[in-house]
Structure formats: C-alpha cells, structure tokens
UniProtKB/TrEMBL annotation:
PROSITE patterns: MFS. Pfam families: Sugar_tr. This is Major facilitator superfamily (MFS) profile domain-containing protein. It is a multi-pass membrane protein. Its main location: membrane. The keyword Transmembrane applies. Residues 1-403 form the Major facilitator superfamily (MFS) profile domain. It comes from Bombyx mori. PANTHER family: SOLUTE CARRIER FAMILY 22 MEMBER. SUPFAM superfamilies: MFS general substrate transporter (SSF103473). It comes from the Eukaryota. GO terms for cellular component: membrane. Keywords: Membrane, Transmembrane, Transmembrane helix. The keyword Phosphoprotein does not apply.
Amino acid sequence: MNTFYIINLNSFSVRVELYMGFQISKPLTPMWNELVDRTVSSHGFGRRPALLTACTTQLIAGFTAPFCPNYITFTLVRFFNGAAVAGALLTSFILMIETTGISKRELMNCIVSVPLSVGEMIMPMFSYYLRSWTRYSFGLALPNLVFLVLFFIVPESPKWLISVGRLEEASLIMTKIAKWNRLPTEDMMDRVKIIAFESNVDAHKNVKATYLDLIKVQEIRWKNIGCCLTWFILGLSFYGSNQYIGQTSPNVFVAIAMAGAIQIPGILLSGYLCKRFGRRHTLIFLFILCGISNALLSVPDDWYYFKLFIGSTAVSSASGAFATVYMFTTELFPTVARNMAMGASSTVSRIGSMLAPFIAGLTATGPWIPPTVFGLVPFAAAVACFCLPETRGKKLKDHFGET
C-alpha cells in the first residue's frame, strides 16, 4: 500500500467515521476482563497476566500496522490494537487501586489519569512531523516498547491473591511493597491471614463469579444498573462536549493538543473534590456542571470567547467525571467481580460514545437539538448517582457476601 486512502467526505461523515472507528473496538474490553475473572474462578492467572497479555497484543499490533499491505488488514490490526488498549487501561487501573492504600487512592487516580491527557497533547507532534501514515504508525508504536519493562516490575494484585486463597504469594508481594515504602515487614504472613479471615476467604475462594451475578445479587444489581447508566451518559456527554474543541484553533494540531490540555484541570479538580467531599457528590457536581455547560453551547456563534470558555468547562468537567467514575466503580464492587463490572460499564459507555456523533449531526435539523440533548442527559446521570453508596475511606470488598 503505497499511499493512504484519501476519501472526500463531508465534515459530519469524517467525524462519525473517525470516532466510530476508534470506538468500535472498545466493546471488546470484556474479553480481557472475562479472562481475568475466569481465572479468579479457576485459581489461574489474575490481573498481571491479563495486563501483560493486553500490552503484548498492543505492542505486536502497533508494529504490525506500518507493514499492512491493504486497508482491510490495517483496519483489522487497529481493531485488535483498540481492544488491547481498552483491556490494558481497565486492568491496569484496577491493579493500581487494589495495590494502593485507602488514603492515597485519590492521588493515584490523578497520577494515572493525567498521563492519558498528556498523551493526547503529544500525539499531534507525531502527526505533524510524521506525515506519512507508515511513519506515523511506526512512531506511535515505538512508545509501546516501554511495556517490556512491565514484565519485570509489575506484581500480581495482593488483593486478588488473597481473595483466591494464595496467601503466601500475597505475603511476599506485600513484603516487597512494605520494604519499598520503608514500612515494617514483621509478621506479614500473620497480617495476610487476618485479612483473609476477615474476608472469609475459605468460604468463598471456590465460588465462581459470572456476569449473571451482576444481575442476580440484589445489592450488586442496583449498583451495576446505576454504574452502567452513569457510564453510558458520560460516554455520550464527553463526545458531545468534545465536538466544540475544534473551534479552539483553525490548526487541527493545536486544537487536538488543546483538547488534551483542557482535560487536566478537571482531573485535578476531581481528585481534590473526591478527597474532600466523596465520590458521589463529586460526580453529581461535575455532571451538573457539564450539563449546564453543554446547554449553554447553544448560544450564537458570534459569542466566540464565551462559547470557547463554556466548551472548555464542559470538556474539563466531563474528564473529571470520567476520572471519578473509574475510581468509584472500582470501589463499589468486590474483587471477584470488579473486572466484570468495569468491563460491563465501559462497554455501555462506548455505546453512548458511538451514538453521540449522530446526535451531534442533528445540527442540520435543528441547531438547538444537540446542545439540548447533551445538556439534559448529564442531569439524569446526576440523579442516578444518588442511588449509589459512598465509598470514600472504605476498604475494598473481596466477595459478594461482604457487600
């Protein structure tokens, strides 16, 4: 393939095709989560192998893309690359939360979320200097080599190991973590046994967890419904907010870089609010702010700077809500079902993201329709958040019986 395919489409089609091309692979996220949760049942692998499998797939797909002989092959490779990215993102986030102390979760959430926006800011630099699609694909694949380091430094989740009764392995990892943080390491095995006893591991370690449990168990059912609704609306709202970022600059490279930069204040704000007021109230506030901002985007185009400010506020608040809901959902569900719950919620979110471009395209029918829809749906998510329990300062549960 000597030249890349250039297709003349109207702006709406370009927006829909590009965004849906990125999002269409995201529903594969549960594949990676299913791998993890099946191993919870069979005492197999755990978080670490699932993460490394996703990262390896991403690495291979990244370096395969520049050598694709035709468009169909290129699309297929990018499809698996997108699925691997989604799986690595969720699994790594869960691994981070499960190995972080209660008092540091908000800080670690920001540390993990901000680099995503920084990556979006840096990406235009690759596309600016690497104008050939082959060079661009190869340039984007090079950072994936960092994943090789993960094979040597990433531990298994002690939380997961304890939940399946592998106490000795959990003790060794926790000892290493304690030494790294210059904390006492004496009687670590006894501490692990106490944690296992409090979680009643012996009674639950042979219990299989499936996606049906997210519906069958009453307490989990309502949490799952609330989270799925929240994630769906957030996926819809986030794209609805981002459609206005192109107005920040006539230069597409600058516009994309600014889109990433705008997200950072919202992420940092969400970390502070979660620490001070809790997850639920933070989400409610950010959803309301996002809804009001999206609704105000219906003002005339002549109000350029006002519209730019409101659009930036909408994107920033939606980004903060995303960072919050990742942590909130992880804390709501027990270890044996955490990945499944995150996978289900994330998949529903991508469905919302795929629907959003079509709503944005209704501008031709009525300019007021997209701002109205994108302005109202966040309020529904805010209402759904009232049905979810607060998790600030609470330890992670391991089994359904503890919930």
